[in-house]
Amino acid sequence: MTDVKQWWTDEHDNLLRLAKAAKNPMSALFDMYERYNALKELEKKEVDELLFEWIDGDDKDKRYTALAIAEEYNIPDAIPAMKRLCDRFKDSKIPDNPENYYERKKVLSKIQKLEQQAKNS
Question: For the chain, what are the domain ranges?
Fold first, then answer.
């Protein structure tokens, strides 16, 4: 893992831990938005790669953060990972799991939004 990716992961984990302790987990997301916004272009490319890994991963907190940043910062390169996530939810061993259904709907909506924004750019 590169230094930038390690730093990003550590920042996420530390901010989330502090936010959960303060019973305000959304504050970690807003702090991550600020950190993403402050990244240089080359650093963003590395962090984007990591975000795509998080979307593909099993850690729900990291996946939530990655999806939120992809949507907030209009990162169309996240679409393939988001589509894989939707397929994973669709092919889940528990297909009637409401959490998977609603999560899949939210991700599909984000994909549509990113695709539309990419067309308009």
Answer: 3-120
